[in-house]
């Protein structure tokens, strides 16, 4: 691994100038390294972070990648690390014309990292330096505690998706002037609505009383407001203090809850485990936005490498080579999903519709196909719109808002179905649906969607940690429940209960049609590494 030479660096600086002229925004300092295929294979298990802490699973994945590479030799053209300064790696056998294309792709990634609001908590964070410090810490702990460090890493990784990433973003993006205290939040959100169950008129009167108090008393409003409230509801203060004592800071962040409330982890001899949990949790929070913006990020980079490469006079004579490589990267498969292809086409679709004013309600309400096809207000707002999309959305919002029937029809997209041909004993694929709703649902189902596990601290007793899976129509993966709950029990230092939903066995249907799924509530209890399952009432 070595820095690119001065000739290649000059190519990169030229790409930066052209990218900025086109509207991209990124920091001046970047680092570019040339790496071999072997380097890329070894970096893959560590998410391309060379300073990531060592873990035995990484070694196993390196062996697997080497075996796969021997059978199917291919490697990514580049990879980018969202850190300060941004670092990118390039294959050691790229020609200059290909580097121009790749540099534009990389610069668009950096622009996305440094401007998309879902990356807000990483904007001033040198992750590679922090990862190096974490690596040294893990190495020191491993030299002292041996294999127990790997056990704690494994237990922590089993719940590293149970971090309150959106809570972190909410704290960062909430305007200072509208921050309300937890007492105000409790009064309006819980006390009035759930405990007192006041009528709508009375609830609105309380909002008016609070707003009037803010106008009259300013910073002293809360004290004056609750002085009158306690006279009306004498039980309020006691209920609020009970709520504060029983409720964790973030009841969706299991890792943070264990760090703050586990008596086992807070024993003097076990405090080193907290350091390991902090490393795993912070690493997970760093990667959360990259996981949640994969389609947008790759689509944005593909859009700009195509847009800027074709107008770059330095690549004349290599248009055919570019077309071949670009088609390989952004091809739209008939079966399966290519995030580069979907993201690129959706950004172009948004740009074209915004240029013609077709994102406005006047267009959306039209039902006549010919009127829709001829609708063109020539607003010229396409570029402005895609930059706003790049700044504010994640994959979920990107897909849910912009994948419409026009997009499906233009690119001839469809949802495929697989069925067994019993005569020939082969699987056959066919077009299942060309409706935008079905294709949108397929894309949304493919996105990262960790379970929401709520900590029920108010009902925990006898040292038992009670967890509730907020059921959203998707059951937990059965094969992971046992191992994950063993890890949670170890980190908690006591029994753990998990309440979730599972599909009940359906009786055979006389009509031959699949029966409607029926869900039942179940409770798992892990105690002394023994898992018990209990069925509760039907959902």
From TrEMBL:
Signal peptide: none annotated. InterPro entries: Spore_V_R, SpoVR_N. Residues 9-427 form the SpoVR protein-like N-terminal domain. It holds the Pfam family SpoVR. This is Stage V sporulation protein R. It comes from Geothermobacter ehrlichii.
